[in-house]
Amino acid sequence: MPERKPRKDAVRNRTAVLAAADALFARCESPEDVTMADVAAAAGVGKGTLFRAFGDRTGLIRALYEARLEPIMDAVEAGPPPLGPATPPLQRVPALLDALLCFKLDNRPLALALEGTAGGSPYQAGHYERWHGLLRGVLERIPEPADGDFTAHALLAAVRADLVEHLAGREGVPRERMRARLADFTARVLGSPATD
Amino acid sequence: MPERKPRKDAVRNRTAVLAAADALFARCESPEDVTMADVAAAAGVGKGTLFRAFGDRTGLIRALYEARLEPIMDAVEAGPPPLGPATPPLQRVPALLDALLCFKLDNRPLALALEGTAGGSPYQAGHYERWHGLLRGVLERIPEPADGDFTAHALLAAVRADLVEHLAGREGVPRERMRARLADFTARVLGSPATD
DNA sequence: GCACGATACGGACCCGGGGTCCGCATTGCA
DNA sequence: TGCAATGCGGACCCCGGGTCCGTATCGTGC
């Protein structure tokens, strides 16, 4: 498996496509009105190129998403508190959720596209597995919630892209308010009385 | 607006389509491999008829969903405790969520279809508004959760069709266990220590 | 610098599914 | 029984994801 190095034009095209797609998704109302042909055209590339580079639509979106998410994942896996692994669980859980929420607020169309495209649900998206595993692990280091597995699922559900979109986009809930609400909710789930 | 009564064959066809679609959705792996043409064929009807009766795919699914949901809605709006309006909020919230969970467990493909089809998210589905308004109203009658609006969203997110599908279908979590987990989670959100 | 195999390009093409249209059949009222 | 009005059906259109292959580009050995 010699992992032969790709041709120069191939990588150039790849990055061009990534950039074009990023721009298109950022400027769109709904992710499904960014078509593959659009992306190809915007990148000055043929559809074939696009599909060869990313396999299919999901692959493209995943690549974009991963690129954007990378810094956060780094911070989570090896960064300083409150995201990094050295953080005590009771602070880390809300920090993780807040980071996820902010990420989705900052990348609404992309997150929406990923969660809406990957086979109809985000639960086979790979990312989800990682986040869920992570959260679950942290939750299990505190005694309170009996079942870390389900709790992790339920907490992650509270920051799903379309809910975020609904609140932030449709209803115009301001960012800080959403963060506060989520923090509140998380605190309540963790058992510590927050506001009262 | 005289509300002219429909012809007899029209209503016959409508019910035939409903029945056929119901059967098809019940017997399918994923809702997107039930095609409109399939439904029409199974009902012994032309596509035109189908679209005339229901407008579009979403309309069909909504009609099916509503039919299935009706008994529960009745029980919620005018039934006895623990679902009916006479129930004290602290018991009614978990009862509502449990009912919703059970409903989605019993109608997995349908729920999946509805939440996955309606414009890419369930949040403009109409049903959602109702459930959310209801839950929010009940939540606001208890002092604990500061923001009933967000709390309602977050709790409803925990019983989303694709999460239910993921857990019950993919991971084979048994029904009673899911109900218990959800009850636990709900209790924790409501501030009352449940298991410990 | 050249020639030639390997690699990538691109856009015409295919396919499948949602949705439409209109000539024809059924209905139901006088 | 006759005649609108209403509904039927399936051929048809559109559009988007995905494929294919003749052609252009790359890059390596000489």
From TrEMBL, chains A, B:
<feature type="domain" description="HTH tetR-type">
    <location>
        <begin position="11"/>
        <end position="72"/>
    </location>
</feature>
<keyword id="KW-0238">DNA-binding</keyword>
<protein>
    <submittedName>
        <fullName>TetR/AcrR family transcriptional regulator</fullName>
    </submittedName>
</protein>
<dbReference type="InterPro" id="IPR050109">
    <property type="entry name" value="HTH-type_TetR-like_transc_reg"/>
</dbReference>
<dbReference type="InterPro" id="IPR009057">
    <property type="entry name" value="Homeodomain-like_sf"/>
</dbReference>
<feature type="DNA-binding region" description="H-T-H motif">
    <location>
        <begin position="35"/>
        <end position="54"/>
    </location>
</feature>
<dbReference type="Pfam" id="PF00440">
    <property type="entry name" value="TetR_N"/>
</dbReference>
<dbReference type="InterPro" id="IPR001647">
    <property type="entry name" value="HTH_TetR"/>
</dbReference>
